[in-house]
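Structure in, sequence out. Go:
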């Protein structure tokens, strides 16, 4: 009991929040805990909100990646409020995303993903984008297509920019690390 209390106190004092401590709402309105994916690699990808041929291609590639690697990795796709996600376009975006992405991809509801959102930044993205939180990387999700790789032990071990294509060798190699 005393060790438990000390452990909780140290965790609060030193801010040792881990990836599995977060929850989020899906675009379909379900609450999911990151702990559901404990023991599995996780790829968090920021989504485009503009429907273009390039965006369709990205979504198709993300769906293919998720299907081909479903035993290895859970893909969580996230539309960003900073990129234009709003409650008024949510239904249209949900329909578009689901027309391109199968059930292997979990789609979060739109959230603030960038550091510039300050206290409005979703807690998951605060963890992903601040080295003081994740203990490895300090890279902002400042555009659609950012990719954050989390190990099966809950450590952020890779971040790739939007210029790195989902179907590219870099993503495949990072998944296999």
């Amino acid at each position: 009991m005393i060790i438990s209390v000390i452990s909780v106190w140290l965790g609060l004092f030193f801010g040792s929040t881990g990836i599995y401590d977060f929850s989020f709402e899906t675009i379909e309105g379900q609450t999911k805990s990151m702990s559901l994916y404990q023991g599995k690699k996780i790829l968090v990808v920021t989504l485009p909100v503009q429907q273009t041929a390039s965006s369709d291609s990205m979504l198709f590639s993300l769906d293919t990646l998720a299907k081909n690697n479903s035993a290895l990795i859970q893909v969580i796709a996230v539309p960003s409020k900073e990129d234009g996600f709003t409650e008024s376009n949510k239904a249209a975006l949900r329909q578009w995303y689901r027309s391109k992405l199968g059930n292997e991809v979990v789609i979060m509801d739109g959230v603030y993903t960038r550091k510039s959102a300050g206290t409005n930044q979703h807690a998951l993205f605060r963890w992903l984008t601040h080295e003081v939180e994740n203990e490895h990387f300090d890279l902002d999700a400042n555009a659609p297509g950012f990719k954050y790789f989390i190990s099966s032990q809950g450590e952020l071990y890779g971040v790739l920019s939007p210029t790195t294509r989902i179907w590219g060798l870099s993503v495949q190699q990072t998944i296999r690390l």
